[in-house]
Amino acid sequence: MSESWKNILRLTELVSVNEQTGLSLGQYIDLVAEVPLPTQQQKHDFAIYVSHAHSWYKHLPPYPPGVPFCFFIDKYAGCDRVLQQEGTLKIAEREKTGFHYADIPTERYRNRFGYLAFACGAGTSVVHRGEGPIVVPRDKIPGALHNHAVMYGLPKEIMEAGTIHLTAVIHALSASEVSIWPSTRLY
CA–CA separation, 187 vs 182, rounded Å? Predict the structure, then answer.
């Protein structure tokens, strides 16, 4: 696991992935074996979705090297990991749009993006603390949920193949938000 991901893991709240419980490549393949691969259209739509899933122009640096984003197949893509009042975790399909605009219903998510998922430690976490169960953010660390809502680290092969460093430029508003760009003198 790269040093930048280790730093993100140390800073992540409410979500834990023990590096000792990371999946082997074989275990990961077994976990996602029945999941259909995304279509070209789903990959395209997912790239657009990720670029606007948060206000990246506010949270990512404007210049390279950027911050790591990890893209991977997730058996539970579009689902919530919910902390119940008694302290147990469960996986729940999202039936309506969540508190954050990027939390779209599971069925719509999978129709548009298949089982694609991403993780990026930058940006803010949105944790709605209203009545009832708490939805634990899943897009901060690269991990795979297992059937019993335990999150396991991704295999290093998936991490290496699926990680790219991105900057604020991935969001369309980065060009119009001149306040994020350091001032430079041309004279």
Answer: 15
Give domain status of residue 187, yes or no. no
Q: What is the pLDDT of residues 86-138, one digit of tens each?
A: 778 888 898 876 665 567 899 999 999 999 999 887 765 555 555 666 676 66
Q: How far apart are CA 9 and CA 19, in angstroms?
A: 10
Report which residue type is found at 124.
T
Report the domain count for the chain.
Answer: 1
- What is the SS3 assignment for 87? coil
At 132-144, the pLDDT tens digits run: 666 766 667 788 8
Domain that holds residue 66: 3-180
| 20: exposed, middle or buried (Cβ count in 10 Å: 0-12, 13-18, 19+) | exposed
**Position 186 in a domain:** no
pTM over 0.90? The answer is: no
Residue 169's identity, in one-letter code, is: V
DSSP assignment letter at 21: G
